[in-house]
Amino acid sequence: MTFRFDTKKLITTIIMAIIGLAFLMPFFWMISASLKVEEEVLTFPIQWIPETWHAIENYKEVWTGSMPFFLLYWNSIKVTVLTTLTSVTISCLAAYGFAKINFKGSNVLFLVVLATYMIPPQTLLVTQFLLYRWIGLYDTHTGLILLNSFSVFGTFMLRQFYLGISNEIIESARMDGAGHFRIFTAIALPLVRPAIATYAILRFIWTWNDFQYPLIFLRTEALYTIQLGVQSFSDQHGSVYSLMMAASVSAILPLLIIFIIGQKNVIEGIQLGGVKG
């Protein structure tokens, strides 16, 4: 077996590694700053490894200080998990219906649904606000969950994967007496599992990071999500960068855990989409 040295590939790999490291440097600095005393945060050149470790004090101040981080975390987890489950369920059902159920006007209806994706969500805020005040969902987690539960992007994305399922499989199942619900749960869902996992992770990240909807549709501090909590914490401790970085690291920790757990499914979903495309 002969070894062939590919200079072009090596140079490309080195360049991509440098670019990737450049993108990760702010994240590394944030972690480093959260472990330091305040006097060392803005020193130049940057001391990546703290001379004086202050991690316990910084994170203790964040979690046991004036902001109820445990309550903020619980609110965000509740809203994000329920939103993700609801959105994935609705998108899966809608995508299967548009992809595998033939009914009159299905293509036109799908185009209408797809056209709504071109409407900036900011243009709907006033109408949504007035509607939620009228039906009693303003300043509730239920209203916040419903706002993000209907996703045109999720429906479109999953529909493309459902279209990749052979119609012969669907017809064979129908000839054996299976209805659409049975076909959907026993055949369609397992075949597009990586795509569903990919969308679920994206939906989780988008909802967890959402600042606009909680800011507008929540008024009671006990209902605040982590993003509103970090903003309030910034108003109180904005000049103390070590505490701000500790709060930021705490806010993004669930996202890192979710991505580490689901990265295999994300990669499979991307590969599946590439092969299908």
Automatic annotation (TrEMBL):
Family recorded in the similarity comment: Belongs to the binding-protein-dependent transport system permease family.
Under the heading InterPro entries, the entry gives:
MetI-like (IPR000515), MetI-like_sf (IPR035906)
Q: Which residues form the ABC transmembrane type-1 domain?
A: 73-262
Q: Where are the transmembrane segments?
A: 12-31, 72-96, 108-131, 143-162, 183-206, 240-261
Q: Which PANTHER family match?
A: ABC TRANSPORTER PERMEASE PROTEIN MG189-RELATED (PTHR43744:SF12), ABC TRANSPORTER PERMEASE PROTEIN MG189-RELATED-RELATED (PTHR43744)
Q: How does it sit in the membrane?
A: Multi-pass membrane protein
This one is known as: Carbohydrate ABC transporter permease
Keywords of this entry = Cell membrane, Membrane, Transmembrane, Transmembrane helix, Transport
Query: Does the entry feature the keyword Chaperone, yes or no?
Result: no
Q: Cross-referenced PROSITE patterns, in alphabetical order?
A: ABC_TM1
Q: Which domain of life is it from?
A: Bacteria
* A Pfam short name: BPD_transp_1
